[in-house]
Structures are given as structure tokens and as C-alpha cells.
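Re: duplicated header lines in exported C-alpha cells

Our pipeline writes sequence and C-alpha cells for each protein into one text file. With two proteins the header for the second block appears twice in some exports. Here is an export where it did not happen, for reference. First protein block:
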Amino acid sequence: MGRSVFRRAASTPKALRKAKSVPTQLHHQGGLPPQPQEQEHTPSPLLNAGMPPELPDDGMPPQLPNAGMPPQPQAQTPPLPTAPSGSLYGGSRPPPPSSLSMGARPPPPTALSMKTLERRSAPQTGMDQGGFWTNRGLPGFKIVVPEHKIKHPIRVPETVTEPTSATASEASAVGADGGAGDPSTWGTNATLDELRRAGSDRKLTASCLTQLRALCRTEANRTDAIRLGAFDAVIESLRRHRGGDETEKLTEAGCAALRSLSSKPTAGSNPEGAVVAVVQSMIAYPSAMGVAEHGCTCLWSACFGGTGEAVRRKDLAIEHGAAGAVVVAMRLRGSSGSHLLREASRALQHLCTGSDTRGEERRQKAVASGALQTLASMVTDAARRVEVVEEACLALCAVCAGENDERLHAALAAEVVPALGKGMAGCRQSTAVQEWGCKSIDLLTSGVGPSADARRNKAAEAGAMAAALGALASHLSSAYVQARAD
């Protein structure tokens, strides 16, 4: 078998040489192209699979091109990048494609890539104090710069601490004339201490009261001031400096401080003392709009509600002349008249409300002070703002409540019904004015008996029916107005 292979391999070159010596035949007549010459035939290695390799004519095995040379290293495919140990992806698993080029939000930076992100991340919003570009939008971003690289250390804002009484007194060095100190920098303790030591110094007392009012606008300072006895200190200052035109501003500052202290019931407060102090101040300065405004606000804050304590404060205020002081405040005119009238109307409401046995006496004293005529003029005045007319109608409801026939006849005599008709017609779009106006007319015409019939006839002649019909027609969708008007 081996001999036949060698014989076939040896005969193949001779056949090829013989074929090359035959000239190519051209078919000129048929116009055919010349036939291609026969090429050397190289047997496919697949045909001789499993057979020994064929040898050349000399019987020697073929030589490789790099025979005798050392083997050359083959090119290797670079390995896939792997994440560092302890990173977000871990192991040898390649990380996902970067999302920075797709506009998505990058993952939180690791410790190894922090400086790269600092220099290359976009958008770069500025340079920090260490000289690095930083991307402030990265979640959880934090850069740590050695201290020797920071040219300008970061300044931490100093915490403003409230000075104690001793330090405030030493730093301010306020004398008897109120000289060199700055009360606006004092804390609660220092202000109260200086207020108690002020004595007859009016200027220093006024400064302390003004500072106390500013401090008590916050809940924490107000609670602290009440705990330290601010009520008694302010009341004593008002008592000491009451009287004279030169103390009007001081009294106004004291009433404003009591107003801030009485804004919310707190343990340790003294609302009874505040009520008496502001009423006496309003009586002492009847033309001072600031005193009247702060006094009325303090009154209705202290007398709000129907609890036993609130009723006692109402009786205490009426005993000291609060009804007359509030009515006088309603008659004042000035730049802040609207706010004053609103606060005075609220004070009169809370003084006259209540179904207790003393409630009728409080309402009777308000009528005796001229409250009905004053409220009627407030409702009639077309120049009043709507909120003032609303509060005046509510005050009329409070004064006209009850079944005292004499007081109700006095209200009809004060022409309250015509005033309500004009006020309701002028504020037709206000639901509150229509509702409480109808309620006032209902209170004036309620009851049975000849006296009640006489009151209803007077009210009808004064235009009560027209006022009620106007309210019904203008507020058909308001259940409150419909109920009051019926």
C-alpha cells in the first residue's frame, strides 16, 4: 500500500509536465474563446484524512517554514475590564456600560473614582476651596481635602446665644437715664431684669417694654417670659407710669406687651391682671389709638370663650369700665381706624356673650354706654370696609341677645333696623353681613305678647322685611342666609 502511494506521488509531476507541452487549440471559425489551460491540482487535505502524509520525490518529509526557530508568541485578546474588589459590582463581572453618555444619572462615586469624578463630571458648577472641580449634583457627594491644601478655611457661623441677665447688665451699662445700652440686643432675662430696675426712668421702661413685646412674638420666648414673671413686671410698670401725656408711648408699649403675652393661655399667666391694666390704660388715654387698639385686642383674647375663667374675666372687665372704654375706642378716627373698629367690635362681642346670670347685666351696661348707637353708625357708614360691617353685625347680635324687652325696645329706638337695612344693601355680596344682619333683626322681633307685637310692627315699618327679602334674593344658594332670613 505504501509503494502505490509513492508511485502515484512520483507520477503526478510527469503528467503535469506533459500537459504543459501541448499547445492551446483555438477555434477561429466558431468564434469561441480559447479554452483555459489546465492548472496544477493540489489534493485537498480532507480527501486524505486518516492517511499518512505524502512525501516528495526525494523521500524526505517536508520542512516547516520556521523550522529550527523558537516559537513566536501569539497575539492575545485583551481581557475584559473588571471592577475593583469591594466595588458596587464586585467579582470579575464587567460593569454595565456607562450611563453618563446617555444623559442618565450616574451611580454614587466610590472612593477610587472620586478624583476622576471631581475633575471630569459634568456639569461642573464651580471650584471648592481645595482647587478641585466638583459636581454638586451627585447624590451623597462629599469631598475631603487635606487641611494644608485649603487656602481659606470655611467659617462656621457663630451660634447667637441669648445673654444672661448678668452679662447683659454688664455689657449694656445702662444708667438711670437709659444712656449707652442697646435694649434690642437683650434676651428675656436681661429685659425683665432691666425693667424691674428701671424704676421711674420712663425712657428705659419704654425700651424694655418694646423689647419684651418683640421677644414674645415667638412661643419659646413668650413661655419663658411668663415663667419669669413678665405679667407682673409689665403691670407694675403701667401702674407706676400711668397719667400724663409724656407717658402715652410708654403705656402703648406696655399694652402691646400684654397683648403679646395674652395671645395664648399659658401656665403662670395672669390674664385677670392684664384685663384690669389695659382697661385702666384705655380710660386714662381715651384719645390714644395705639393704646385703644392693643387694649381691645388684649380684652377679647382674655375674654374669649364661655368657660368659668373667661366669664370671671368678662365680669371683671365690665366692673372696671371696659364697655365704656370700648365704645369710646369705636368713636376714634384715624389712619388705622378700620383695624381699631374691627378689634373694638370683637371686644364688645366677647364681653356681651354668655347665657350666665351675669350676661344680661353685661349687655345692659353695654347698652347704657351707647353701644347700640355706635354700632348702628358703623353699619350705616358706606365708607366702612366689609370686614368692619361684618364685625359690627356680630356685635349687634351679641348686644341684642336675650329676652329683655326694655333693651330690645332701646335697640329699635336707636334705629338699628334701618341701619341694618342700609348696611346689608351696601354689602350685598357678603354672606356674613346678610346672615348676621338677618339674625339681628330676628332677635329684635322675637317673643310673644303685646310688647313683642309692637316691636315687630316697628321693625316692619323700619324696613326689616325689605332687608330680609333682599338677603334671600341675593344668596339663594346659602343655607345660612336662608335659615336666618326665614
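Second protein block, exported in the same file:
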Amino acid sequence: MDPSLKDQLLNLIDKSQSILLLTHAKADCDGLGAMISMYLALQSLGKEVVAATNDPAPDNLSFLPSIHIVQNSIASRNFVITLDISHTPLNKIKYKLSEDKKNVNIVVTPSEGHYKPEDVRFDHEAGSFDLIITFDTGNLEHLGPVYDQNTELFFKVPVINIDHHASNTDFGKVNLVDVVAASTTEIVLGLLEEMEKKYQKKFINEDIATLLLAGLITDTGSFQHANTSPRAMEVAARLLDMGARQQEIIKNIYKTKKLSTLKLWGTVLSKVENDPIYRLVWSTITKHDLEESGASSEESENIIDDLLTNAPGAEIIMLFKHNDDGYVSVSMRSTTNSADVGKICQEMGGGGHVRAAGFKRRDSNNLELLINDTLTKVREYQGQRLNIHPEEIREIAEKKPEPETPRPKPPEAPQAEVKAEVKPESEVPKNEPPKIQYLDFKAETKPGEKKAESGGQPAPKPKHRRHKKKPKPMTEIQGQAPAPQQKPEAPQPQPQPQPQPDQNQNNPTENVQPNS
């Protein structure tokens, strides 16, 4: 921390007695954790402190230590009744307490005429503060109605601005803005350590360490986002050494989901759309979606980080969501440092970081128009960054494929009639190994004539599959009992040897194997 900046900040805190602490509307864990931590430290110094934000804290953050001290307005306990006496002068005023002491009647008597009901208005008295400290807030408008209804207060009272967003407008008298910090709680930790040195008092106990670690964990996506720096890991280690209850944080924020939240997740995933050319993914949450699932708008806070940033091929992810306050919030995430969603959202009235940002628009009951306007802006940005020419994309999208005209078939040449040759079943070759046939020829058989072994019918002529030649006449031999059958060898592509006339009459038998 810069020494001169540190001195200014600590001097303002030291001389102030009534301090107002604020964080942005729809407060998240980082803003609440930073604000409550400072509340507990200042209260231990004997300061009068009010911590406020415009909306109630989300249910999943109810585990945060001392969350109950956060108010939803900055009004004091004084209730003011204002009477317009510009037209009717006042004579006297008194009050009477009822007998049961449950009611008080204020009696106002004019000097003449009568007062009308429209002359009376009611309000809370604005608190009297001598210092305002804002946390995790890019500009004063992000505070919401807390700022809108008390704008004069911010011009009268000095403001200390503590934030880590690059889009911060430096609206404070003292601006403690560190864009390298992963969270606002990381900055507050350094401030509390400086206060411990100044006041020689220990402020950081287990509760404050848990508050600070909760903000760091959520703003880094449980240390998964690109803003998880070595310094952030070192800060987390120090907070664990100080007694931060890490498992309590993880259980309540990441491992506990309502049934209504799970239903809302399913609805969001079913409506996911993408633009692969510009590398965009987006989805919507409407009022109808919230009613159907029974979820509140706070339950959708982490959907974009838990679900949509895992889409493959996407560089910019967007979630359009109806809020209970009559606004539509647009959350953006980037999966690469070269795509600066903080710059896009800043041009659209919001702000944030390079990889996490957002903006708001009043609900015009035309969500599609807002989506189209946003997509146009984001596509222009991506087109310049990725060197995409919209004209070429438009031509591709609008070009319709021409129907193919059938080509005329060329005239077919007349084909000769082919008749299938039908062979007897016995002559059809089968995928079986050839069988050995043993034939009995009598000496009286004339050359070229054969008889079957039995039945008196002439045996079919052996056929060669490859060489269709007529078998030559064989010598006259007498058959004998066949030898044991052996597996035939594969036929060799060579001519069969010529049978020789039997010269040895004493050799009565001879095995003859037909060509296969």
C-alpha cells in the first residue's frame, strides 16, 4: 500500500466516530465479507458503525459470521412526521398517550383554518455520519436506492472507495483500488493488518478470517478463474493459518443446492444458444422460469460460473436474467484474457474485470430486444478482435443452396442377351475340399468308356476346375479296396502327368486321384 494513501485512509478512520459502510446492490460474498470484516474491526475500536446494502443477503450466505448486522437502509431510528404549515400557520402541538399505552396521538392545532391529510408525510431521519466507506463498488450508482435516495449525503461526507475492479471510476476522496487483487477482501486484509500496527490491537480472528477467505474463494471461482494469482494463493494460506473455516465455506456455497436451484439449472441449460463463428454462448432466465422452478433471482447468481463457462469453443458467455427489482441483469464471462468483457460492459453502462463483468437495464418487457442489442455489440467487438468480416458472414448466412438439376442419362448401348448357364447341382463347385473318387475299369472297357463302381450307371467324367480338358484313356485296371482317405493337397497349377500303360501285370491295384 502506498504510504501516503495509507496515511490518508487511517487518518480519516481515526478522526471519524460515526461511520457508514456500504456495498453494491445485490451484494455478493466478496462485498459482504469485506464490509462485515471492517464493521467488526471498527466496532472493536468503539466506533458507531452502520453496515448496509440495498437487498437482503442471499440465503446461501446466511452462514457468514455476523451477517445479521447488515441493514437494508441507512435510516436512523428516528421516525419523522413532517407537517406542511406554509398555508396554515401553526398554533400549538401536543401528544397524548392512550390508556393502554399502545398508541400515541399527536395533536396539532392551527392558528386558523384546517390541516389536510396531504399536508402530512412520514419518513426516517437520515443518519448522521462523518465517514462513508464503500466496498466492491465500481461507481456510486451501483449502490442502488441507498445512493439514489441519499445523494446529498455523499457530497457532504468524505468517501473511502475500496475496490478491485478495473472499471472503478475513482469516486472517493480516498481511492484504495487495486486491480491486481483477486478480491476486495484481499485488499481489506492488508488494511486490517495496517490498522493492527497503528492501534497495536489484534482485529483478525477466526470469524474475520472466514469472512475474508469466503470473498476470496467466491471471486476466484474456488481458485479456478484466471485472476487466481500467486499472491491470492499466498493470502489464502495466511487466512487459513489465522483460523479461516474453509470447509464451512465450501459446504455452504458449493455443496449445498436447493431443489429449486437444480430445476432452474435444468431450465437454463435447455435454453443455451451459441454462435460458433463469433465464439459466443448465452442463455436466459425469465420471470416465468423463476416461477416455474420456485427459485429466487439470488439462486441464479452462480449459474454462469458453475455451468455456462464450461461450454467448449466459447470465448464470451452471457446470461440474461430478470431480477426482482425490475431490472434485467446481463452477466458476462470471458474464457481468454484477450477477450475483455469488462470493456464491453463498461460501454453498456456497467463494468467489471477483463474476464468477469456485467451491466443492468430497466425491464422493458422486451427481453429479445435487449438480447439482440447486446449480441450486436459483442459481435462487433469479436469481429474486430478475430478479424471477422460481417459482410462475408451475412452472405454465407443468406446464401441458399441452388437445387441441383438432374443430369440427362447417356443412351445405353444395346447389350447382347446373356443367358445364364444352368449347371447340374453335381457340377456346381462348392467351397469344400475335393473328394477322392476311386473308379473301377474293366479290361473290356473301351477307351473313353467308364462304369460306376455300383449301379451300372456311367460315372460322371472327372472335371478339372482350371484345365477343362478331356481325360485321356486310362489303362485297364481292376479296383481294389480303397486306401485310407487323406486330406488332399492344394492343386498345383501344372499339367498332370500322362498315365503310362501298365507294364507290370502283377500289380493288381493302383489308386487313381482325379484332377481337382
